[in-house]
Specification:
Peptidase_S9B_N; eight-stranded mixed beta sheet; signal; Rossmann fold; 790 residues; 45 strands; AB_hydrolase_fold; serine-type peptidase activity; globular
């Protein structure tokens, strides 16, 4: 019997020792790119159509440098500073036949002749010129300098100022006299002949000299603290569309103390206001140069602009009737205009500041009237790929047939897809459809095709497609599973690609623009140390949540998992982000840490919970008015799934995550005691009323309007539920999720007499850690927590 027990002990010890051997160390993997290799940035094409440029740092400097390669010689070469100074900027505006481009660089303007590869400098001033566009049948270039627009005549070289915006109120034409003073003036002029003559002479001279005054643009006054924000000119140069903003007067910023400074004094870092802060007001105006008049765009006739959101019903007293409409229209934001070539119309994307409405409108430049082409209303919030998260996102749209038809993206079907609409008839056409998303869309130069990035193949893959611009079959160009960021060559025959796979970091590749073409590797960035380890390809799986939803996740498993094993659930940040995919993760340190944990015998589950990106509108908005609801139960259901399907001991499961992942970790430890033996919460939101407006108001509305949503969504209100071990980690100079969040929670835990928690702070780190020493310290603490508890 004793021999048997000794044998079991020896076998068990041998098993655990075999699991504990890992060639990786936390210090090593937390060096980040110093260990992995410095990866290249997304490539772009030179104007010659033969050269590809990209940012890279193979020498391990503190900054990236510009590199290039050509179709004839695909060996990367560093671009000298002298050559960079002469290179055209990657942005700019092309003329109709793509033979010329105007662009801004270092605050000056340039004209590039692509065929001769010659550059003409247009301006050389200390002021900053920007936003150059072609106008007047491409005979002039219009551009912005300060608060005004100018034109430069290509043939004559003449520069003309075409707007005159002035800060302040318009001066009164004549000083208004009191009735008494008016009587005295008239009496003086009537009684004294010389005084009358001098008065008339002065008036006559003034009229005479007026004829010699140069004709100037109309003075447009920016009154009542308004600021000029957007400024655009139509292709014919006749219409100026301008957007003004009036800042909210009662916005109160926050401050973050910085304790370790060069001066030796504690210094405050200025940071964003909190959710619920008053928002600016916006107006859109048109200046008609031909008639020398201005008029403001009226949005109050848009459908639904008076409509109240339904959540307000919950706050209507029982003895009162809910009024479905506001007395005044909602505040809205106007995008920059997208002009038609004939200069009769412009497309304006209008969004309500509560982010529940988006109107894609046609603006008649002559009358200033709006026509709605598409109205998207969402009781949660309007967003999604090609649409944008915040109200000032312009979204993805453009002209499909000049002066007749436009294309745009919408989540009307539940997934972000492409649509077109005839501006005259209002007839819409669905261009793509299905349970997948269009992540990016651009038109070919001749507008015959769309080039698309989509997850049609699999939610965890993003491939490059070509599709006829009138709709039809999406032809997949790329082949290998993973993610592709693609730049199409000017002649559209080649693709410069940034490609990655689950265990293969991003590198630059070259390929032909045809289906099934092979990838030619251009960069090789990985270090020998990184390549020496056999990095896992985590399996992308699905499990069923309690409400029947299919939840995607990535799972890491030891080669020889122990019975009743241990597991860790990782919760990605941001909420609206995807991590259960088949490409190199932005959470690459965590990916390496999960390989390290797996070497130590842990199973790791990485869940794309409710609110994650990549799965359509309903998944995105699954947390509306209740963060810590379905997004939390998806983690709990994931833990149950591990127990049932992978023989994990339910008493040996931990959880960790940062930012939104830290928030979910706190909610798990406070609201689901006993499910997770321990949790590590990094840079966590503890009270959503203290986070920013742009992100939080979309999901929870504002604390003043929807206090119930904030109460049920903020961990600090559930801290009394803590039973298991909790580790809190936070950077003290975090201007995003501020250190104040965890300080307030710490005080709450102290008052509750909780003892099973600890907090580690990092005095010189913000929301995204920078120093390898901080990263390593943080993750050693997390690993120690799991080792002690699991």
């Amino acid at each position: 019997m004793k021999k048997t027990n000794i044998l079991l002990i020896v076998l068990t010890l041998a098993f655990h020792l075999s699991q504990a051997q890992s060639p990786l160390t936390i210090d090593q993997i937390m060096k980040g790119e110093e260990f992995v290799g410095h990866l290249p940035g997304a490539p772009y094409w030179g104007e010659d159509g033969k050269t590809i440029y990209f940012r890279w740092n193979p020498e391990g400097k503190s900054y990236q440098e510009l590199y290039k390669f050509t179709l004839q010689n695909p060996t990367p070469v560093k671009v000298s500073q002298e050559e960079q100074l002469q290179l055209p900027s990657s942005g700019g505006t092309y003329n109709k036949d793509f033979s010329k481009k105007v662009y801004a660089k270092h605050g000056d303007l340039f004209l590039l002749n692509i065929q001769s590869n010659s550059v003409q400098q247009i301006t050389n001033t200390l002021a900053s010129e920007s936003q150059p566009v072609w106008v007047a049948n491409e005979e002039k270039v219009a551009y912005r300098q300060g608060n005004n627009l100018y034109t430069w005549d290509i043939q004559t070289g003449k520069t003309e100022q075409i707007t005159q915006f002035i800060n302040g109120s318009k001066p009164a034409k004549n000083k208004t006299l009191s009735s008494q003073d008016e009587w005295l003036t008239q009496d003086q002029l009537a009684y004294f002949e010389v005084l009358k003559e001098r008065h008339d002479d002065k008036k006559e001279r003034k009229e005479f000299h007026k004829g010699f005054e140069a004709k100037r643009p109309l003075k447009i006054y920016l009154e009542k603290q308004k600021k000029l924000q957007g400024l655009s000119v139509s292709p014919d140069g006749q219409y100026i569309v301008y957007r003004t903003t009036k800042p909210a007067l009662k916005q109160k910023p926050t401050h973050v103390p910085d304790f370790v400074t060069e001066s030796g004094y504690t210094e405050n870092l200025n940071a964003r206001p909190k959710v619920g802060t008053p928002q600016p007001s916006y107006e859109l105006g048109i200046y008609n140069r031909a008639t020398d008049t201005t008029y403001l765009i009226e949005a109050h006739k848009l459908e639904g602009i008076y409509q109240k959101p339904l959540f307000l019903k919950e706050y209507t007293p029982e003895d009162s009737t809910f009024r479905e409409k506001y007395e005044a229209p909602k505040k809205v934001y106007f995008s920059d205009p997208l002009f038609s070539k004939n200069s009769k119309f412009a497309i304006i994307n209008i969004r309500s500041l509560d982010n529940k409405d988006r109107w894609l409108t046609l603006l008649d430049l002559t009358t200033g009237k709006l026509k709605t082409l598409d109205w998207q209303h969402d009781e949660a919030w309007v967003a999604g790929p090609g649409i944008g998260w915040v109200y000032y996102s312009s979204g993805n749209f453009g002209w499909l047939e000049e002066n007749k038809k436009i294309w745009f993206q919408s989540e009307a079907s539940g997934y972000s897809h492409l649509y077109s609409v005839d501006i005259h008839t209002g007839k819409k056409q669905t261009l793509t459809k299905g349970n997948f998303e269009i992540n990016q869309a651009t038109l070919s130069q001749d507008k015959a095709y769309f080039y698309l990035i989509s997850n049609k193949e699999h939610p965890g893959e993003q491939h490059f497609y070509r599709m006829p611009s009138k709709g039809g079959k999406m032809t997949k160009i790329t082949s290998q599973p993973g993610k592709y960021e693609v730049a199409v060559s000017p002649d559209e025959k080649h693709l410069a690609v940034l490609y990655s796979f689950s265990n293969k970091p991003s590198e630059v590749y070259l390929m032909e623009n045809k289906a099934g073409a092979g990838l030619e590797a251009i960069t090789q960035s990985l270090t020998p140390e990184f390549k020496a380890y056999p990095w896992r390809t985590p399996k992308v799986i699905q499990f069923e949540a309690r409400d029947g939803a299919k939840v995607h996740a990535r799972i890491y498993r030891p080669e020889n998992p122990e019975p009743n094993g241990k597991a860790v659930i990782f919760v990605h940040g941001a909420g609206y982000l995807q991590n259960a995919h088949r490409w190199w993760s932005s959470y690459y340190r965590e990916y390496m840490f999960h390989n390290f944990l797996t070497d130590q015998g842990y199973t790791v589950l990485d869940i794309d919970y409710r609110a994650s990106a990549g799965y359509g509108r309903d998944w995105r908005t699954g947390i509306y008015r209740h963060m810590g609801g379905k997004d939390l139960t998806d983690q709990v259901d994931g833990a149950n799934f591990l127990t049932k399907e992978y023989n994990i001991d339910p008493k040996r499961i931990g959880i960790y995550g940062g930012s939104y992942g830290g928030f979910i970790t706190l909610m798990a430890m406070f609201k689901e005691p006993g499910v997770f033996k321990s949790g590590a919460a990094l840079r966590s939101v503890t009270d959503w009323a203290h986070y920013n407006h742009g992100y939080t108001a979309n999901i929870l509305n504002t604390p003043e309007e929807d206090s119930l949503a904030y109460r049920r969504s903020s961990p600090i209100y559930f801290a009394e539920g803590l039973q298991d071990r909790l580790l809190i980690l936070h950077g003290m100079v975090d201007t995003n999720v501020q250190y104040q969040d965890v300080v307030r929670l710490a005080q709450r835990l102290i008052e509750l007499r909780k003892e099973n928690w600890e907090m580690a702070v990092f005095p010189m780190e913000g929301h995204g850690f920078v120093e390898p020493s901080s990263w390593a310290d943080e993750y050693k603490r997390i690993f120690k927590l799991f080792e002690e508890t699991l």
